[in-house]
Every structure is written in structure tokens, then in C-alpha cells.
Amino acid sequence: MIKIRSASIARPSGVSAGLLASTILASLSAWPAFAQDDRLAELERQIAALSQQVQELKAQQAAPAAATPPPGAFPAGAVVATEETGVPVALLPQVVKTPESPGVAGHPFYGALPEGRTTGAMATGNDKVRLAFSGQINRALNFIDDGLSSDLYQVDNENASSRFRFLGSTSPLNDTLALSAFEFEWPYNGSLDVSQLDQSVPSNINQDFNLRLLEVGFSNNDWGSVFIGQGWMASDGTAEIDLSGITTPFWVGQTFAYGGMLPTQSGADTDYVPRDEGAVPQPGDYDTEEEYEQALGDYSVASSNFANVFTLGNNLDGLSRLVRVRYNTPVFAGFQLSGSAATEDRYDVALRYAGETSWAKFAAAGSYWTDTSDSGYDSYTGSASMLLASEGSWWNGLSFTVSAATQELDQAERSPTTYFGKIGYGTNIWDVGRTAFALGYGRYDDFRVEDETMELFGVGFSQNLDALGTELYAGFWQTQFDNPDIDYNDMTTFQAGAMVRF
User: Fold this and answer.
1) CB 184 within 8 Å of CB 200
2) For residues 252 and 240, what is the distance between their CA atoms, to the nearest angstrom?
3) Whole-prediction pTM
4) Which of 2, 317, 479, 490 has the highest count of CB atoms within 10 angstroms of its CB?
5) What does DSSP say about strands 470-482 and 335-342: parallel, antiparallel, or unpaired?
6) Hey, what domains does the chain have and what are their CATH numbers?
């Protein structure tokens, strides 16, 4: 920038402006003619130079900014840095869209990554691969009255455990997407491990990462997708189709939220129900009363000796995640068929559907899954969900979800069975994010032994804080147990927590 300073002439005190002007004009008239000509020529040169600089500045402002070359466009070994920051161009954050998930709406294959989510790309060693990092932390307080005592527990809510993942994607061909995924879970003091006897989980459990995903795959809209490695079996998720938008505080797999807790009993030698009655110390097995009391005391302090809530009932959601090969067909009229084969003789097949009308969205799934080993089983799982969606109607945001599953055990006469139903409602009461409520019921039969039942009644609430990427939630559940040979106590659970997604 060029600054022009103007000179000022001081007027002597008491001299009028007219007299001063007359004096200046007289001085100029006496200036030699040749001096005036040189002065005028110099001023004209300065004015011409200033005009040239102004034109150059205008041209620079009007010219479009030069496009930043994409990463990988520079010669090998070259480091190109932006003038403003000094940061190499290849390391500057770029906004990309994560690849759309193979699968149908209602059950995206990578459920934790919303389809088409805008995110920042990370730098990678291969400039042709986009890498996205994401995850969540989910902590909760469980206040539980087990019928004999009550206490407060801090847990990692394994309805949606704390985890992180790396998802790599590239398009080697125009219509084909290549994917790779690492996902690890770290449920510190997980709700499936914490119990009345283990309020703080042993460090050898808390310090371990659980590998959830380690796989590669290829997806094409014309021929489908195939995946190999540790990942979701085809039947996984078929019990959990849910369009309500409120799953953390009330989910079809709600027993994950407090599944490590031990149901209590009255009128027995132990406060909790043994997993194996034959392992309980008996007075006749010991020479003295003192020896028996010592053995019973040692037995009673180990939580692994007793049945927990998850043992008495869960959602039987397929074969979960295994080392397998999985194939998904393309989507035809909203339907998609999937099949997978895993190590140790486990196989499954699943059919999913998703569709919508002007007033509602629908999603459903069903699966058959089996373990063909000598101690195996045959299982059937299905679920469906409907979300009413019509702006301006009072029922906009109302949802209904149902789920059922059964398992036929090869080496037992019983067949564990589960049923679940939920009514939900979600709306934007405040500008901060979506608010949702849910009311539900679950029943679980013959999981541990025949003729034993667990029932779950509950309500849930969640509030999204979009600006913080956070969900605040709370839930209340009453759990009742029934067995003709055991005097069970009811269990009351209140949970409040927060999940932050990143």
C-alpha cells in the first residue's frame, strides 16, 4: 500500500488568510519559468507511476485464486507449502463424503457412520485412499435396587459401548468401491461386567481392547458387495431394526445396559442364583461346619459363579461378529439378501427390506442362523419398525418397533425365546436437537433353564445436543423374574448418561 502525505504550511499568528494567499501568489509569479516546467514534469511522472500501480492492484484483486493442487500431484519428494500457513498442501484438511454404506436403509452396513456424512479426511500413506476416523464415548450411572440392597454404579453403557474406528475407502473403478475397516471397543467398567460383587472390573479386563472389525470389502450397485475378515455376520442386526431414533436409553437389546447385574433370591444359601447348582458347596462334602462355611464364602464372592441378567435374557441378535466371508446382493425394490459363512461351522442368511410412502418409513429384517457343530443350534430372528413421517400432523415422529427370536439347542430340551415391543416419539421441541421418548416391554423365556422367565418394563428419554455432538439420556426399567423353584426378587434400574460422538 502507498501512502501520500500532504505538507501543511503554518500561518503566522495575526496574519489574515487573504494576505497569506497574496504572498504565495506573488512568490509563484516570481518563480523562474524553467523551474515551474521541471516541477510540473516531475509531478506528471509521479501521477503516471501511481496510476500504473493502481491498475496492477485492481488486476490482482479481479484475478481468480489459483486452485490448490490435489495431494499426490507433485513430483516425488517435493513439499509444497501454502504461503499463508507454511503447512504442506497435502496435509491440509479436505472435506469429503464418506462412502455410502452397502445395505438398505434401516440397517446400513456401517451403522455407526451415517450415510454420506461430511467429515474431514485424514492424511494417509496412500494418496488414493480416503481415511475417516470416528467413534464415541458412552458413560452412564446406574442406580440399581436388586431387592436386597441398592447401590450406584458407574459403567460404560454397552447398549452402544465406547469405541473408535478407522474406515478407509477408495474407488479403483468408477462403479466399484473398496472398503477397509478397523474398529476397537474399550468398555471400561462395562455394564456387562459390573455387578454387585465387582463394582470395579478387574484391570486385566479393563485394560484390554476388544477387536470388533478387521475386514476388507468391495461394493458395486450392480453385483452387490462382498466382505472378508472379522466383521458382522449376515444375521447380526436382524433383531434390532429400529427407526425410532431413540435407542441408547431404550433398545431392543436393553439388557446390555445392566446385563452384568446379579438377580437376587430369598430363602437360599446364597443371595444370588448359581449358574450351576451342582457346583454349590454342600455341607455333606466337608468334615466340619467351619470348612463348609469357608468354602461357601469363597464360592459366594466370585461373580462368575452366578447367573446375571444377560444370562437370563437377551435379544438373540444373530451370530454377531466373526471371522467370515459375507455377500450382499444388490437392492431390488427395497429388498436385499445376505449370506455369510464363518469359522467353526457357523452359517447364516438374512433378508432385509426398507421403503417409504408419503406418510411413513418402513424397515424389516429376518434371518436364519446355525451352528452345525455337535453342541450347536438352529435359530430364527426377525424385527420390524415403522416411523410415521408427515410434516404438520400430530403423529409425525411416532414410531412402532417389534422384535422376536427363538433358538433350538441341539443338546437341551429347552428353546430360548425372546419378544420385544416399543412405542417411540421424537420431535424438535428445542433448537438444540431432537428430543425423543420411548415406552417398551420385553419377555425372555427358557434362557438359563426351562420354565424360567424374565420380563422387562421401561421408559426412556433422550435429548440430542447437535452443536456438541452429544446425546443426553435417561431410562427407568423394572425387571421381574419367575421360576417355580426360586424365590426371585424384582430388580429396579435407573440410568442416566451421556454419549459423545466424534
Assistant:
1) no
2) 6
3) 0.75
4) 479
5) unpaired
6) 118-272+307-501 (2.40.160.10), 273-305 (no CATH)
